[in-house]
Specification:
alpha/beta; Rossmann fold; five-stranded parallel sheet; three-stranded antiparallel sheet; 9 helices; 50% helix
Amino acid sequence: MRLIIFGPPGVGKGTQAKLLSEERSIPHISTGDMLRSAAAGGTSLGKKAKAIMDAGQLVPDDVMIGIVREVLASPRAAAGFVLDGFPRTSDQARALAGIFRDLGITSYWVLNLEVDDEEIIRRLGARLVCRKEGRIFNSETDGLTLTSQCPECGGELIQRDDDKPDTVRKRLQVYHAQTEPVIGFYRAAGVVVDVDGTNSIDVVRREIRVLLNDLQAR
């Protein structure tokens, strides 16, 4: 099964992608993992990406697309994959369609996780991070505040700048302007499966399982 998981920041793409990877025995391929792996692998594209990242710059489309092509063409992805974090723009979506054609990939689905902006702002605003260990907690479900200590190591809990409401709103503006139009590209191809992402992790997981089983049974 070949899947692209899609949705705004904070919707739970990474969590559901990991669960799908475990359930379906297919690799979870995230943008960050691809870049780190390419840089560590020392390929020509990997070296180029590493130099760009070390300089604190964004990896340009031509390099990112090349890395995606290498990963999807590798034995690792031969039996399927969950692609997380790519494509982010319509140009990237068109490039990915070209990669799929070149690799003979004709069957795939886009899981579109839907959550409204205010819920995302609330969710990310409740996220606390241990400064020492990087563990993530939820102020609502874990009963913690910024004055609490990390339950695991006793370290300081902080709220990352990326999770503060003003920053989240800016991230969502970028998403709506640049990334959300990508879903129209896939709707035109008839491969979008909409999923209500407002429920708990387990409920969303079960809904995805039912939807995918239905698609496979057709």
